[in-house]
What we know:
Layout: H1 9-12, E1 15-19, E2 22-25, E3 30-36, H2 46-62, E4 68-75, H3 79-91, H4 95-114, E5 118-128, H5 137-143, H6 150-181, E6 186-188, H7 191-202
Antiparallel strand pairs: 1-2, 2-3, 3-5, 3-6, 4-5
Helix pairs in contact: 2-6, 3-4
Amino acid sequence: MASTSSKTTQDFVPIKEVRDGIVVLKDGSMRSIIMASSLNFALKSADEQNSIIFQFQNFLNSLDFSVQIVVQSKKLDIRPYIALLEDRYKEQVGELMKIQTREYIEFIKAFTESSNIMTKSFFIVIPYSPSVLQGKKSVIGNVFGKKTDSKDMAKEKVEDFEENRSQLEQRMSVVEQGLVRCGVRVVQLGTEEIVELFYKIFNPGDLEKPIQVN
């Protein structure tokens, strides 16, 4: 009996591949990920708050599929900003500016060390599961005596992927439009951003730069 200790992390991750900005799971289902901005709800007027709640309620009621809202919290990595300030310090010519820059650097370091400053990122995960019959086209063809070679199977897989992606994009459009009506800015994550996101999830000890979407 094989020992479970020999299994790698990939064995426990249900992701098969990330392709064209789409997460393909091992069971054949697909996921797209949208990054959403936050709203400072407390600073809105009472009328604005009621309008946002009403729009969000309408958005949820318009969905005929499930979505997952993920909030990622992590400690703010201040090192890139400190490195930038250190470069500015070296560029200063006047002694007074050097002293002020150094004092500011020390203040930022002390403040961030004594305060637990967190950053939050918001993601919407949209699922799509292909129909059961779609994955059995080749099997049905073989039952009725129609043979399929490797080229036909590869073409069929590409066609299935494009068809499923089209269905998933329709769902993405519904979600994006609903959130925009609530005043939330959204952007779909591409392949590189998704890979970076999952890398950070499974490697929480690594401090990297935040996800940046052009």
